[in-house]
């Protein structure tokens, strides 16, 4: 049985926040506990912040390769000017560079990517859409179910409609927006 952290737990929320927030909570918790504990136990109070410190380190490691705002803006500008063929080639190259086996598909998903035995389907053909509705997400879910994929990824630089956002949450579709796209395509698109 694989253990999974609840998405709404304090630690899961902190993992999604900037790393320094967890470190700050660790410092405050340690100082508060060391002051509130009796003098002979004050040294043990310092350990109260240790779990938050660990979460801060994990978040920092995850956020370290995150692109800066200028890289995100540059990637958005570049991919908006690309044809589907060029964009698909850049996506495929980005996934291959990150160690995935990539297979192009037709239908509701454009790619099937596999790494460490985990299969994901990726839909990116409508990346330039001004607003994404539910239909392309339904097609992605159907493609994922037909091939037994573990994950569903939808790539867009535009917003999702409110219905599409709810559907993506219900169906556990990971929406790759500008920052994740900039990370995936780092070095693949140039001005």
Task: Tell me what you see in this structure.
- With 191 residues, this protein is of the alpha/beta class.
- It is built from 9 helices and 5 strands; from the N terminus they run ααααααβββαβαβα.
- The longest helix has 18 residues, at 19-36.
Number of domains: 2
- Order the strands across the largest sheet as they lie in space: 1-2-3-4-5
Low-confidence segments, given as residue ranges, are none
Oligomer: single chain
> Which CATH top level class of the largest domain fits?
Alpha Beta
What is the 3D form?
A: elongated
H-E string:
HHHHHHEEEHEHEH
- For this structure, the CATH topology of the largest domain is Trna Endonuclease, Chain: A, domain 1
Arithmetic mean of pLDDT? 86
Largest sheet: 5 strands, mixed
CATH architecture of the largest domain: 3-Layer(aba) Sandwich
Topology readout:
Blueprint: H1 10-16, H2 19-36, H3 42-45, H4 50-63, H5 69-80, H6 84-97, E1 101-104, E2 111-115, E3 118-123, H7 135-147, E4 151-155, H8 162-170, E5 173-176, H9 178-184
Parallel strand pairs: 3-4, 4-5
Antiparallel strand pairs: 1-2, 2-3
Helix pairs in contact: 1-4, 2-4, 5-9
């Amino acid at each position: 049985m694989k253990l999974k952290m609840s998405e709404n737990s304090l630690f899961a929320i902190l993992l999604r926040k900037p790393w320094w927030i967890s470190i700050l909570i660790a410092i405050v918790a340690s100082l508060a506990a060391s002051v509130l504990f009796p003098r002979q136990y004050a040294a043990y109070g310092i350990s109260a912040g240790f779990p938050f410190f660990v979460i801060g380190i994990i978040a920092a490691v995850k956020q370290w390769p995150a692109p800066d705002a200028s890289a995100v803006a540059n990637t958005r500008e570049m991919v908006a000017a690309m044809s589907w063929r060029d964009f698909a080639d850049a996506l495929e190259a980005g996934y291959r560079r990150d160690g995935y086996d990539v297979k192009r598909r037709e239908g509701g998903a454009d790619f099937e990517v596999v790494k460490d035995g985990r299969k994901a389907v990726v839909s990116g053909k409508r990346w330039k859409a001004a607003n994404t509705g539910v239909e392309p997400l339904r097609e992605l879910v159907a493609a994922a179910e037909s091939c037994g994929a573990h994950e569903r990824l939808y790539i867009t630089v535009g917003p999702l409609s409110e219905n599409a956002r709810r559907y993506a949450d219900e169906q556990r579709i990971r929406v790759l927006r500008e920052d994740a796209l900039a990370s995936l395509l780092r070095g693949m698109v140039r001005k």
